[in-house]
Each structure stands twice: as structure tokens, then as C-alpha cells.
Amino acid sequence: MKQSKLLIQTFREAPRDADVVSQQLMMRSGMIMKLAAGIYDYLPLAYRSIRKFQEIVREELEKDGCQELLMPAVQPAELWQESGRWSFYGKELLRFKDRKGGEFCLGPTHEEVITDIVRKNVRSYKQLPMNLFQIQSKFRDEIRPRFGLMRGREFIMKDGYSFHADDADADREYWVMFNAYKRIFSRLGVKFRPVEADSGAIGGSFTHEFHVLAGSGEDAILSCDACDYTSNSEKTEAPQVPAVDHGAEQPLSKAHFHTPGIITMEEQAKAMGLEAHQASKFYLFRASKGEDTFDVGMVLRSDHEPNPVKLRNLLGADVLELVPVAEAEGLSGAQSGFIGPVELEKIPMYVDRSLEGAVNLSCGANQTGYHHFNFNPKRDLKLFKGYFDLRLGVEGDTCPRCGNGHFQAFRGIEVGQVFKLGTKYSKSMNCVFLDEQGKENPMVMGCYGIGVTRTVAAVIEQNYDADGIIWPWPVAPYQVHLLSLDAANPDVSEVATRLEKELEAAGFEVLHDDREGMSPGAKFKDADLLGFPLRAVVGAKGLKDGIVELRDRRTKEVRKFAPEAMVAEVSAARDRILAELREAGGR
Ligand code: ATP
Ligand code: MG
């Protein structure tokens, strides 16, 4: 391919609102353009990488017998009403009406449509299991689209769904897909981890997310340094920190202690001369479950952070949010900082298990300027609901699984998720099969997603330097960037064009920078920015000595040889690069 004909424009600077590396580099290298917030054009170079990744996904899924199909992006409301998600799915679901007034949405995911297809086409246990997938543009009206392709509103996803006669078979397939995902991300040579993740209020027995590790990742991951336990911090089981002995229980008392400007309970504790473990802190949450809305309180040690996801799951709530400060102050009758659980007698109170056995704590007394001392949660809370694991795990915590290691913290980009769905959709949508006895049963389902465009961006988040992208071979838009220096020189253009053809004939993908009237420096800069694995250079000076060059983008190693050796040299470099990648894959 001749670069003079390629649809591409490179930029020295990234747009101001590009705040992660992949977005900056993809925009600077002319791979993507922003059409609207969270909606991007995938220009030819980007689309080549995207298609290559799609091919990897297809190959690995087809090895496991998955079948590809393509469902409509536009989905009728009726299906979503049947599953119950029409009212439950929030504003991320873009809904609209057609000219006849029929209600539709743009698919953010396809459980309803696939369940409809399967219920109409599969009758017997003999047809099960079945695993179907598609690769398609999804639309989610994200509240904060950002980070380029990492959190778009329109993005490409691989979504797969499997259907089974029983639970055990769904479990088996879960691990088949888990391993397929490991192969898929290993092939990219990126560092990734499968992590245990929250399966939300819809329960489901288990789910893993696959995360590419990168500082720009939106998720916090904790991984034990001694065993395999790796989890999204939303889900991480926090170890129970043993309560410190605070002596014999004293009666609850109240004292004035006003330190203007100090808001957090941890700071309050310090100002009051208490150790963090002698002070408690309190959060007031509002939960909704179906039509029901109710307030609940969470009590924690002052130096621990709350994990609302744990409380939401414990309550089986659909949504759990902090009560707005003004409202909480209204309920309490005190300023924020002095709100506490004791007087809020009508509110059920959930206490973190690291406070089990702790007595004589401090807490806000619901009167501005006042605190309680000698607070004993179990004794003093009218609607005490018990001690539970409610806090966020943190780096350094002892691993509750093995009891030996400690958590290390990472940032991760969620590139995929495998999920055991159970019968949620098959029951609500009557997707049933006849078993061997001729009895009707709901199918057991699994679902499996990969963020295709997000993965391509995540690859860049792990593979770049100050000069630009460093593409791993398998998803590089082209493998060889062939630069003609002094492109107008007939000798150069003759040799370069010949090499382009020879390399292509040998199966390599070549972008030939044949642009005339450009300085070598400008071409080198563009080549580094675009970051294909190998850069071949043909220049008038070198040709005089019978020499061309090949440079490895990652190692910067340069080899010089006669033009006739180009194909052999490129082949050897590819073999070396792929061997290194196999070693790096999954590390
Ligand atoms: P997130 O927690 O990041 O919002 P999710 O858990 O809601 O993602 P899933 O429903 O699991 O996403 O979708 C499957 C995959 O699609 C995700 O693992 C992710 O890689 C990708 N994905 C989800 N939302 C986006 C988005 N807004 N932009 C790009 N990719 C996305
Ligand atoms: Mg997910």
C-alpha cells in the first residue's frame, strides 16, 4: 500500500481533551476521529487493527465450536419488556420511536434478542449445548464518555451467549470460554489478569473480568502476592481486622468536640486524640429494590473505606447511592461530620466486621459539635443488622483466601467478561427445551463479552514510548513500514517498489511511504508515531553502498544489508518478535 494514497493525517499535538495515551496517539496518528462525544470514526489504519483483533477472537472461539451470527442493532421494546429490563435499564439505553410510534432501542447488549432466537429455533436437549456470538457495534449512552475508544458510547463488542440443558454444563462452558479468553489476550502479548468480579444484584454464581494492566485503567484490582486470588476491588473480600481491646464496656456518653474545618471522621479521631481503630464512621445510603426505596446505614472503622457494592448485594438492591449531604443533614439534624448512627433509630444499620467485638468507639452524635464516646454498635443501635464484610480491601491487607500473602494493587482496563447468567432470561422469556423425559425446562445460560475497540486501545496503553505506538505484531495495522527517502530519486523508487512487492509476495503487510518532497526526519517521526513493528529504509545514500536498513520499533536495533536480503531479514525479525511475544503473552 502506498502511503501517498492512504487516508491519513498525522499531528504533532494531541487534541486538548485527549487525556489518555491511547487516545492521544490514535488521534495524532490519524487512526481515529471524533464525530461526537464517545463516537469515533475508525479510519483505515485503526480498522485494520480492529479487524485483526476480530479475526483472533473468531479463530479462538471457533476452535471451541462457537457459531458466529449477526443480530440487529435496533431492538424492539417488547423483548425488553418481556425480560423486565425495559424499566430497569437506566439512561444508558438509547430509546426511540419509529414512524408508527413503535418503541425501540439501540442494543447495548443482546441477551433478549439471542434468547428470542434460541427459543424459536431450539426445542430438544439434543440440540444443546449451543454457543453463539457476534461482533457488532453497541450503543450505550454512557454518562461520561471519555478516554477515546476505552469508554465510548458507540463501540465494537464481541458478545457471545451459550445455552445449556443444566447447570453443570453451563459451568463447564464457562471455563471453556475462560480459557478461550486467556488464549485470545495471550495472543496479543499484553499483560492481563482474569479477576473475580462482582456479579451484581442479579446474583449469578460467578463471573470473571479480564483486565489489561495499565496505569490508566479505571478499575482497581487487588492481587495476592502468594496465591492466585485476584479480584476487582469492588468484589475483593476484605480480611477481618481483629478488634483492638478497648477495655471494659463503658456507658455511652456525649461530649462537645468541635474542630471547625475538619470533616472526615479519621481526621476527627486524630484531633480528638483517638487512634483510628477507636473511632467509627458512618455512611447513610439510599437503596432501591423494584419499586421500593429505603435508607440504610453503614458503620465502619474510621480508617476503612466503604464498599457500597457489598452492601447493595447484601440487600439484594438494584441501586444503592449515598443520601445527598443536605438530606442526610436534614435527617440527622446536624452538620456533616457529626452525623452518626445512634439516634437514627428507624434506619437499619449494617456494621463492618472489622468492628466486631470493638467497644468504646466514638461516633457522630447528630448534634453539630458533638460526638458520642463509648459507642458499642451492637448495644447502641436500635436496628442493628449484624457485622458483615462491607469495606474495600486495600493494598497490604492479608489475603483472606490463603491467609499468608498480602494484596498488591494494580489498575486494570476491563477488556472482557465471562458471566454465568443462569436462567434469568430463559425463565422470563420462556426459552425452554424438552429433556430426555420429554419434560420442559428452562435453558441455563452464560454470556461472554469482549470490548473489541477497547482492547485495541488497551494494547496501546501498554505498548508505546515517547515517540509513539509500538504495535505488537498480531494487531499492527501493517507489519513493515517501508520508507523511501528521496522518493523522487528513480533509483530509490525502483528498489523500494521492488522490495514492497517482494515483501507482499512473501505475505507481509507493507505500508510504503512513497511521499515525495518530505525530509527523512519527518518520515522517521511519522514512522515512529505509527509504530509498526519493522521499519525498512531505502535511501539514495545507502543504495550507493548497496545497503538498505531494517529497524525494530521496540528494540530500536538496526540492521544493514543488501536489498536482496530484505525478505529473509524481515522473516527472521518476525520470527524473533513472535517468539518474544509468545513468551510475554499473559505475563
Ligand atoms: P464497564 O464496567 O467498563 O462499564 P461493563 O462491565 O458494563 O463495562 P460489559 O457489559 O461487561 O461491560 O460489556 C462487555 C465488554 O464491553 C466490557 O468488558 C468492555 O471491554 C466493553 N465495554 C463496555 N462498555 C464499553 C464502553 N463504553 N466503551 C468501550 N468498550 C466498552
Ligand atoms: Mg463487564
Q: Can you give a write-up of this model?
A:
The model has no long low-confidence stretch (mean pLDDT 95). The strands form eight sheets. Strands 3, 7, 8, 9, 10, 11, 12, 21 and 24 form a nine-stranded mixed beta sheet that branches. It is built from 16 helices and 31 strands. It folds into three domains: 274 residues, Bira Bifunctional Protein, Domain 2 (BirA Bifunctional Protein, domain 2, 2-Layer Sandwich), CATH 3.30.930.10; 136 residues, YbaK protein (Alpha-Beta Complex); 107 residues, Anticodon-binding domain (Rossmann fold, 3-Layer(aba) Sandwich). By secondary structure, the protein is an alpha+beta fold. Helices cover 28% and strands 28% of the residues. It binds adenosine-5'-triphosphate and magnesium ion. The site of adenosine-5'-triphosphate has 15 residues, from strand 8, strand 21, strand 24 and helix 12.
Write the CATH architecture name of the largest domain.
2-Layer Sandwich
| First-last Cα distance | 34 Å
Task: Report the CATH topology name of the largest domain.
Answer: BirA Bifunctional Protein, domain 2
- Name of the top-level CATH class of the largest domain: Alpha Beta
Please give the share of residues in helix. Answer: 25-40%
- Could you say how many structural domains there are in total? 3
Mean pLDDT: 95
Given as residue ranges, the uncertain stretches (5+ residues, pLDDT < 50) are none
Radius of gyration using CA atoms only: 29 Å
State the fourth-level CATH superfamily of the largest domain. Answer: Bira Bifunctional Protein, Domain 2
Q: What compounds are bound to the protein? A: adenosine-5'-triphosphate, magnesium ion
User: How many runs of DSSP E, i.e. beta strands?
Assistant: 31
